[in-house]
């Protein structure tokens, strides 16, 4: 089914076959391999220490399925972000209803064909459609709802889940910051930022949203950023086979409106094409914190660069806003890395690299605060889709619990007070 999925991704998002393999299909294949390899060990009950008061007794922690789950997936990585949660759901022994995004219709159809052809309908069902179908699904009682998307819809999902006290995993987004410190290797840093920002034309929930650095570092970094864009996507990215497109004209219009051509040192609106939904890789310098591009998650190929005095101000800026899904730091100083780890809160922290952590099997992925709740991938995903059930067993003889039975008088009362002091 890989060719069918790759063709659909190219049609919906302009993704190249290589990018689809690297960020969509291959990631899911690796997740399946990882889960298959370790699932037997994850399913084994683990022993619990119960302490001397209950002796003789034994305790275990067992994992059991939650039941019927709902997976509502987004359009930006429609294969990866549909199938990776489904892998976790199946690994946990659950049934699942999958609702792919209608914004990427070709991929939705390809996923529907894949799941209906190869999976038992008694375990997995697919519901295609838009808001009306999703609304009906959210009115039903599920044992877990797994949603990936924006915060506004995340709140709708959470409210619907609350009606049935249904637990949720919400993978949302936010403005993921980048701080480039003095002394960083700027050539490598630029390549990694450009790759992380402009993969999938910037339509990535953990894409670097904005970059902070001192004026001196910005001045030295700019040529490297321009060089990296040209090296990856040529001087005419509209002709590049490796550069994607906006998913729709609606998103094209929204992102294009955020670009200030007077501040664009790379890209801009001149070569943008609404018919093909093409927006070039755009870097904006001299951006103010109150500019429109800083008022929302960009979710497109626009990288604003802002001046800070150093790590202190960068940390303060991050702390002043919502907790991001990811924060990125490029610094040669371990002390600076530790400060960001200790003094900022984000779903994840990536030091010296972008994007790579989300495709790493075994590393949890999820947000905190406004960027989401819960996490998945590897064992964390298996645990998200299962209930940890404690099991205690105590023999009936000898009956060592006589001490705790009433009435509590004399020596028994004094002894219990000593024990439970």
Provide tags for this entry:
421 residues, alpha/beta, Aldehyde Dehydrogenase, Chain A, domain 1, Aldehyde Dehydrogenase, Chain A, domain 2, 2 domains, seven-stranded mixed beta sheet, six-stranded mixed beta sheet, 13 helices, 18 strands, 38% helix
Give a structural overview.
The chain folds into two domains: 190 residues, Aldehyde Dehydrogenase, Chain A, domain 1; 190 residues, 3-Layer(aba) Sandwich (Aldehyde Dehydrogenase, Chain A, domain 2), CATH 3.40.309.10. It is built from 13 helices and 18 strands. The longest helix is centred in the N-terminal third of the chain and has 27 residues. The protein has a seven-stranded mixed beta sheet with strand order 10-11-12-9-8-13-14, sandwiched between helices.
Compact summary:
Helix content is 38%, strand content 18%. The chain has 421 residues and is of the alpha/beta class. Strands 10-11-12-9-8-13-14 form a 7-stranded mixed sheet, sandwiched between helices. Strands 5-4-3-6-7-16 form a 6-stranded mixed sheet, sandwiched between helices.
């Amino acid at each position: 089914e890989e060719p069918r999925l790759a063709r659909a991704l190219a049609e919906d998002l302009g993704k190249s076959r290589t990018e689809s393999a690297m960020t969509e299909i291959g990631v899911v294949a690796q997740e399946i391999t990882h889960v298959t390899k370790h699932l037997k060990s994850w399913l084994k009950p683990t022993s619990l220490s119960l302490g001397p008061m209950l002796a003789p007794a034994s305790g275990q922690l067992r994992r059991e399925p939650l039941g019927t789950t709902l997976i509502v997936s987004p359009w930006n990585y429609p294969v990866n972000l549909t199938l990776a949660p489904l892998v976790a759901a199946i690994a946990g022994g659950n049934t699942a209803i999958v609702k792919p995004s209608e914004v990427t219709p070709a991929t939705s159809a390809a996923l529907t064909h894949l799941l209906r052809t190869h999976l038992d309908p008694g375990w997995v069902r697919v519901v295609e459609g838009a808001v009306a179908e999703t609304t009906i699904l959210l009115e039903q009682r599920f044992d877990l709802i797994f949603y990936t998307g924006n915060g506004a819809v995340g709140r709708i999902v959470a409210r619907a889940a609350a009606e049935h006290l249904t637990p949720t995993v919400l993978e949302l987004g936010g403005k993921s910051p980048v701080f480039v410190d003095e002394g960083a290797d700027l050539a490598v840093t630029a390549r990694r930022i450009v790759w992380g920002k402009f993969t999938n034309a910037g339509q990535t929930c953990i894409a670097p949203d904005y970059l902070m650095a001192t004026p001196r570092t910005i001045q030295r970094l700019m040529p490297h950023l321009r060089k990296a864009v040209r090296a990856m996507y040529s001087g005419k990215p509209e002709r590049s086979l490796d550069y994607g497109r906006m998913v729709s004209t609606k998103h094209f219009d929204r992102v294009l409106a955020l670009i200030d051509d007077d501040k664009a040192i790379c890209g801009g609106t001149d070569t943008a094409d609404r018919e093909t939904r093409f927006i070039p890789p755009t870097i904006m310098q001299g951006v103010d914190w109150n500019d429109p591009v800083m008022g929302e998650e960009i979710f497109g190929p626009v990288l604003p660069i802002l001046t800070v005095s150093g790590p202190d101000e960068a940390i303060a800026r991050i702390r002043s806003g919502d907790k991001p899904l990811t924060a990125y730091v490029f610094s040669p100083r371990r002390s600076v890395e530790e400060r960001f780890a200790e003094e900022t809160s984000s779903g994840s922290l990536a030091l010296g690299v972008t994007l790579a952590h989300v495709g790493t099997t075994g590393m949890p992925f999820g947000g905190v605060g406004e960027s989401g709740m819960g996490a998945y991938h590897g064992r964390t995903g298996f645990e998200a889709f299962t209930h940890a059930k404690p099991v205690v067993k105590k023999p009936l003889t000898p009956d060592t619990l006589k001490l705790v039975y009433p009435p509590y008088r004399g020596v028994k009362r004094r002894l219990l007070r000593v024990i439970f002091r």
